[in-house]
Write a structure and sequence with these properties.
The chain is α/β, with parallel strands linked by helices. It is built from one helix and six strands.
Length: about 140
Amino acid sequence: SDMLLIVLNLRFNALLAELPQSLHEVRTLRVLDLDGTELSGPHYDPDEEGCPLGINYYSTGRHFVPVTDAAVAGELARRETILRGLSLAVPELRIKTAGTEAWSGSTSELNDPTKKVWWHAACGHDWTDSIFYEE
């Protein structure tokens, strides 16, 4: 029998920069954790050295680059294309691109309006919005 893919945890796969196009066809996929990959979103860390605003961008999976850095614009556009395309193809999918906590496994957490860690294209916020990474 076929196995259903519901949760895909790619968290802290530092060199992961692409997702296979075949994921667009996985209609059962509901949770995708990309925190700590080359597809992750901005992170907020007031203690991060070298970033006086305390807002950082996890640009390479290993190094923080300030969000205001002009070199980040192209990288943001690349990630936007990948993430938005997948989210639109699989509307029930919730994507985590930032945060310090791993998913607890509770499905109620996915749609909890007080927990803004799970992004999808129709949620009304851009995936880089600070609500997804500021505490």
